[in-house]
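Could you please consider the sequence and fold appended to this message?
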Amino acid sequence: MAYPEFIRALDPREPRHVAMMTAATTVLRGAGYAAFDGAPPAQPRHSAIASPYAHVTAPLRRLADRYAGEACVALSAGEAVPAWVREALPGLPVTMRDSDRRAGQYERAIIDLVEALVLAPRVGEQFTGNLVSIASHPQHGGTIVLPELAIEGRVDGAPVQALGEDLRVRLVEADPARRRVTFEAV
């Protein structure tokens, strides 16, 4: 079954499907950047579309697009790509990887803060959620998603279960200062 067909077949009302949907969000992430001046890279294919791919968006969105856009404008006009663009290309993949990493950390920190703020007055309450990942460390059960609140958090002491299983948990920590939410299995 093709990836798009598989994803569309998942039902967000089914706990096991929620676990798969959570895992599936990482399948096509992690695209890298390849700078080139002349011949295209040896492997130009994008895994999701199984075809050669170059992504160019608005220059204010991503730094790399500023340079790619300038190259496209020059080539479309039948002109040489500006020297400042060609000089910057070799260093862009490292810069963009670092930028993507920082952006991901920032976004995760914001989500963690909002989740902790929402749950802070509810420490001690019990919830039912879906186990979406199982931790490799024996003291940590894994990650649980509370569907009714769209909140994800670490669950400690969870018995080993199948992904997607319903799990009853108690909120033991919701600390906005540390941007941390922790549950324990009950």
